[in-house]
Design goal:
149 residues, alpha+beta, Ribosomal Protein L9, domain 1, 2 domains, four-stranded mixed beta sheet, 3 helices
Length: 149
C-alpha cells in the first residue's frame, strides 16, 4: 500500500514522502496514529498543490527579502547615545538596539538575529553592519552613532 507520510517515521521516511508499506502496517500503525494517509489520487493532488503553493510562497518571500536588503543599503540608521568627551559610549549599541531603531525610524520589522554585529558598538562614528535576511538576501547597512547633546 502506498502511504503519504504526514510526519517523520523512523526507518521509513520523512514527512511528505510517499512510501510503500505492507497493508497491515499501514492499517494498524501508520493510519491510526495519524503518521500518514493512504496515497489516493485526491491525496496526491492535494499534496502536489500544497508543495507548489509553498514553493511559490518561498519565492515571493525571497524576492521581498532581497528588495528589503536593497532598500536598507540606501538608508542610514541614526542613533543618539550618551558619550564621553573622547567619543566612547557609556554603554554599547547591540543588534537589539539596531532592530528597534529600524522599526522606529523606517517601520521595518527585522529580527535582531538577522543583524550580524560581531561586537557591540562602543564609540561614536559611522559603521557598516551586515544584515542577512535569507541565504540569498544579505547586504550592509550604514549605522551612524552620534553623541547625545
Amino acid at each position: 500500500m502506498k502511504i503519504l507520510l504526514l510526519e517523520d517515521v523512523k526507518k521509513l521516511g520523512k514527512a511528505g514522502e510517499i512510501v510503500d508499506v505492507s497493508d497491515g502496517y499501514a492499517k494498524n500503525f501508520i493510519i491510526p496514529k495519524k503518521l500518514g494517509r493512504e496515497a489516493t489520487k485526491d491525496v496526491l493532488n492535494n499534496w502536489k498543490q500544497q508543495k507548489a503553493s509553498e514553493a511559490n510562497r518561498k519565492k515571493i518571500e525571497k524576492q521581498q527579502a532581497i528588495a528589503t536588503v536593497k532598500d536598507l543599503e540606501t538608508k542610514v540608521i541614526t542613533l543618539k547615545e550618551k558619550a564621553g568627551k573622547d567619543g566612547r559610549l557609556f554603554g554599547s549599541v547591540t543588534a537589539k538596539d539596531l532592530a528597534e531603531a529600524l522599526k522606529k525610524q523606517y517601520g521595518l520589522d527585522v529580527d535582531r538575529k538577522k543583524i550580524n554585529l560581531k561586537d557591540p558598538i562602543r564609540a561614536v562614528g559611522n559603521y557598516s553592519v551586515e544584515i542577512k535576511l535569507q541565504a540569498e538576501a544579505s547586504g550592509n547597512m550604514t549605522v551612524q552613532i552620534l553623541p547625545q547633546e
